[in-house]
Write a structure and sequence with these properties.
The chain is mainly α. 86% of the residues lie in helices and 0% in strands. The longest helix is centred in the last third of the chain and has 28 residues. The model has no long low-confidence stretch (mean pLDDT 89).
């Protein structure tokens, strides 16, 4: 459970960073927010996929 908490924290931090960088590129606030959220969700998806591969012994 602690591992998923760390993964969630990293994903949220990465999403916030991506949103800030997007805003610095003069995107609108809603575009920056959507981009940050989508990057956080993508990071969690990658972590989930890596966990599934590790459990099945293919990694």
């Amino acid at each position: 459970m602690v591992l998923w908490g760390k993964r969630l924290g990293v994903a949220l931090a990465y999403g916030a960073l991506a949103g800030v960088v997007s805003r610095l590129w003069h995107d609108t606030w809603s575009d920056s927010l959507a981009f940050g959220i989508s990057m956080a969700v993508a990071m969690l998806g990658v972590a989930l996929a890596m966990g599934i591969r590790k459990r099945t012994g293919k990694g």
